[in-house]
Amino acid sequence: MVHGVLLAHVAYGDAEDLMQAVFLQAMQRLPDLREAGAFAGWLAAIARHLAMDHHRRDKHLLDVEDAPEPRYFRPPVEEAELALDAIRSLPEAYRETLMMRLVEGMTGPEIAEKTGLTPESVRVNLCRGMKMLRARLGGKEHG
User: Fold this and answer.
1) Which of 63, 68, 69, 119 has its CA 20 to 30 A from that of 26?
2) Which contacts (CB < 8 Å, 24+ apart) does range 12-18 have?
3) How far is it, in rounded angstroms, from Cα 119 to Cα 110?
4) Residue 91 DSSP label
5) How far apart are CA 115 and CA 42, in angstroms?
6) How many CB atoms within 10 Å of residue 49?
7) Domain range list for the chain
C-alpha cells in the first residue's frame, strides 16, 4: 500500500528509495499513533508527506526547453513509466486509488479499508480515474 501511495507522487526509483524513509519515520513516530486501527491511514499520510517533501527538495528538474526530444528521452520499452506518469498527472483521489488497484493489485474493498473511503467512493474514483487515464494515454472509450 505504501509503495502505491508513493508511486502516485514520485518516479519508480524514487518510490523505492522513499519506502525506507517512510518505515523509518513510522518507527520513530509509532508512540504518536493513538489508534491502532488507524495505522494504514497514518502510514499512508507519512508516505504522502515524504513524497511532497521530496518534490520540494528536488531542484534538478529539467526545464521544458532543455529536455531532450522524447524519442531519445524515453525509449519505447519504458511504456510502463509513461503509464505511471499519466497516473501521476491525475487528481490525487484518482491517482492513489488507481495505484493501489493497478500497481499493488488491491481490491476495491481493500482500498476502502486502507484509505478510509467508502467502497462506493473507491468504485467511483476507480471508474473516473480509468476514464481520465484512457483519455491521457490516447485510448478510446468503449460504450
Assistant:
1) 119
2) 12/81, 12/84, 14/54, 18/47, 18/50, 18/51, 18/54
3) 9
4) -
5) 9
6) 12
7) 2-137
